[in-house]
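Worked example 3 (structure in, sequence out).
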């Protein structure tokens, strides 16, 4: 069938789109060449057939309605998307836009191949669905805000995060603002407003309040979108529910704070216990030393010796407890200096020999030549290691000998403490260096002890960069082996000359004693008097400040720290305001390193702990009062 369409045919032939002319029944009157190239149908296969024959069955109802509305004049050239069948039995997505010419009684249809766009949209939809799955897994929602239209778009998870009803659609900015926790609104609003002005990326954390009152933590990130002219056109970003992570972090911080508070409480408790124990212990030790300086009977000297040994054991136990506490809290600091290994070991032997002799044990020291040189180490802690090991060896050796052997091998210093004692069963060796552990756990503890000595020894060796090991069998003795990376220096260090008994006198010194405890007052005053010095006594820091302000005759101040009315720290600072020269020596039962540090910071010159040792006191007085002593 050929119909003369005049200029319309010529116009449509020039178009790259598919066109078709249908009669009022929907049958083809004519098609353009692109019909064949796109759908692979020849013109003679098309003309005269119904348009519905080429439409996908699922789209035919919509096509019939479209044509009916077109013929009735109810549709105003709005497009319809349908699938058209090709000769290969494939289907293309075609956008149909038609108009009805009432004069010629035919329909002019323009068909545009939208397959590529539809496939793109389908792919995009798949990607969006995949993205939503990823967001769902990561608890991340996304949002979009059009700066010009103020239109807001939320992803599905945004409704979950903020507990909003998806059926009601996206909330307005004002409504969303109300969902932010009142305490976080100002910061949140400032961040969003700033991004709306400059489009720069932001990151913020805030709390959101659900309609039921539940509070969730939200991590929000956003940035601006700019057009080709650099103008801000939109904002976009993400919101993530991080409530679980924040709660875990808060739990960890709370646990950390509790641990710190517990450590602080433990430190305060130990400091207080140290003070409370050292104060009466100072009275015991001090009075023993004063009595030993007196003319007493031989029988009484033996009693004094027993008392002195008992008080020293108590003092050592207290020091062990404080040492293990300092080590475990990381507060114990080593003071490495150039010292003599030979001297340190000989001092230990001199100290331990009376104990060995009392048990009829032979105590031997074997030194190879290369350890007689000076080395850099903490003299006090090195001696503490050796004393602990030798003391244990003597304690657990009923008969035979204890040998201390020192040598160097493979750039390491080795110290072996060998005994012929009771030995250690293999099943006990693993727990030997644990705190508060003892091999002898029977009802009647034959040998006693706190179970801290070996634990402290191992920790000290490790702090010095070395370690300790043991080889032992039951009833076959033990060998404790210490290795330390000591740096030896060939030039020997000169030892200080020993002070004579005359040097121990302090006849020319005038001392101000500041002490509140009556027992300690008697101890320190009696000791100072025995040493020949003059003294005056103040019972608190306020009295000491007043005495110093009106009397400048003293050469040194012995200052207690923990006192009523005014403590030693405060008194020292007030005295330093008008007298910066006089030596002030702390004489205290507060034995922790922080107390020593604070004492020096407030202006004291030295720090001595109770119970006071006569030799330590004399040494400090002579050091800081050279002109007088």
């Amino acid at each position: 069938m050929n119909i003369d369409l005049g200029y319309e045919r010529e116009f449509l032939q020039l178009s790259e789109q598919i066109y078709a002319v249908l009669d009022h029944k929907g049958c083809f009157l004519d098609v353009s060449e692109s019909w064949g190239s796109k759908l692979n149908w020849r013109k003679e296969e098309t003309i005269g057939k119904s348009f519905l024959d080429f439409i996908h069955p699922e789209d035919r109802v919509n096509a019939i309605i479209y044509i009916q509305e077109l013929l009735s004049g109810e549709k105003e050239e709005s497009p319809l998307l349908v699938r058209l069948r090709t000769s290969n039995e494939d289907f293309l997505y075609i956008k149909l836009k038609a108009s009805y010419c009432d004069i010629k009684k035919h329909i002019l249809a323009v068909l545009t191949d939208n397959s590529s766009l539809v496939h793109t949209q389908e792919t995009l939809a798949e990607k969006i669905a995949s993205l939503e799955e990823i967001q769902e897994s990561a608890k991340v929602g996304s949002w979009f805000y059009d700066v010009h239209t103020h239109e807001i778009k939320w992803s599905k998870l945004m409704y979950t995060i903020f507990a909003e009803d998806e059926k009601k659609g996206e909330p307005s900015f004002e409504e969303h603002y109300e969902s932010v926790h009142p305490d976080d609104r100002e910061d949140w609003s400032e961040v969003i407003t700033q991004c709306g002005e400059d489009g720069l990326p932001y990151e913020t954390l805030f709390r959101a309040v659900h309609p039921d009152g539940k509070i969730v933590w939200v991590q929000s990130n956003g940035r601006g979108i700019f057009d080709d002219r650099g103008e801000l056109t939109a904002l976009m970003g993400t919101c993530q529910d991080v409530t679980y992570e924040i709660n875990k972090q808060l739990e960890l911080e709370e646990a950390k704070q509790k641990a710190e508070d517990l450590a602080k409480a433990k430190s305060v408790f130990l400091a207080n216990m140290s003070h409370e124990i050292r104060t009466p212990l100072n009275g015991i030790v001090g009075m023993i030393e004063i009595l030993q300086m007196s003319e007493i009977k031989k029988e009484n000297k033996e009693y004094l010796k027993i008392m002195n040994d008992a008080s020293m054991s108590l003092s050592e136990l207290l020091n062990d407890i404080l040492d293990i506490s300092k080590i475990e809290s990381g507060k114990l600091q080593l003071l490495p200096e150039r010292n003599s290994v030979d001297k340190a070991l000989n001092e230990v032997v001199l100290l331990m020999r009376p104990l060995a002799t009392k048990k009829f044990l032979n105590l031997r020291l074997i030194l190879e030549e290369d350890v007689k040189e000076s080395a850099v180490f903490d003299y006090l802690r090195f001696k503490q290691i050796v004393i602990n090991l030798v003391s244990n060896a003597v304690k657990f050796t009923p008969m035979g000998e204890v040998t201390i052997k020192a040598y160097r091998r493979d750039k390491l210093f080795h110290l072996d403490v060998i005994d012929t004692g009771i030995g250690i069963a293999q099943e006990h060796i693993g727990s030997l260096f644990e705190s508060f552990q003892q091999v002898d756990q029977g009802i009647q503890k034959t040998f006693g002890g706190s179970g801290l000595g070996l634990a402290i020894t191992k920790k000290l060796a490790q702090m010095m960069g070395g370690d300790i090991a043991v080889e032992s069998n039951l009833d076959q003795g033990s060998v404790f082996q210490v290795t330390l990376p000591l740096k030896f220096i060939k030039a020997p260090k000169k030892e200080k000359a020993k002070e004579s008994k005359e040097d121990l006198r302090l006849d020319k010194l005038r001392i101000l004693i500041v002490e509140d405890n009556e027992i300690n007052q008697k101890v320190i005053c009696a000791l100072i008097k025995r040493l020949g010095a003059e003294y005056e006594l103040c019972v608190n820091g306020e009295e000491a400040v007043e005495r110093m302000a009106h009397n400048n005759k003293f050469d040194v101040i012995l200052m207690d720290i923990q006192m009523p009315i005014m403590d030693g720290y405060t008194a020292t600072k007030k005295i330093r305001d008008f007298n910066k020269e006089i030596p002030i020596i702390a004489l205290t039962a507060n034995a922790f390193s922080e107390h020593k540090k604070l004492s020096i910071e407030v202006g004291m010159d030295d720090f001595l702990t109770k119970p006071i040792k006569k030799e330590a006191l004399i040494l400090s007085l002579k050091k800081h009062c050279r002109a007088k002593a």
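Notes: The radius of gyration is 48 Å. The first strand starts at residue 18 and ends at 23.
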